[in-house]
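Hi F.,

I've been meaning to write this up properly since the lab meeting, where we talked about keeping a consistent format for the predictions we share between groups. The idea is simple: the sequence comes first, exactly as it goes in, then the structure tokens exactly as they come out, then a line or two of notes. No screenshots and no reformatting. I'm using this chain as the first example so we have something concrete to point to.
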Amino acid sequence: MVMVRAIVRPEKTDAVLEALMDAGFPAVTKVSVVGRGKQRGIKIGEITYDELPKELLITVVKSKDKDYVIKTIMQAARSGSSGSFGDGKIFVSPVEEVYTVSSGVKDEDDLVAQAGAADAGGEG
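Output, unedited:
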């Protein structure tokens, strides 16, 4: 299992969530965040905005699905055909264990992404 964390533009969030749902990965947690990337924010006139609004989308998927999920997120989150600065980042981390809070049961690897997330009310 892997955890995929995608930081995307707020206006791209709905497109990414829809793309993941259509691809068969409905379990996603969404958090509003602020931050800056390599471009160090945006300067408009004399004002520098160094904390820009973004959305953090988190999902846990089977390792074999990782590349497909990343491709799906990239396609939906990219601005235009070639992308732009500030489109976001995707981070992938291994997941060692997963537990369902309501039952206290340790989920098995082959159940976590779909069944375990559904039990948690749709949140991954």
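Notes:
Residues 35 and 59 are 20 Å apart (CA to CA).
The chain has three helices and six strands.

If this format works for you, I'll send the rest the same way.

G.
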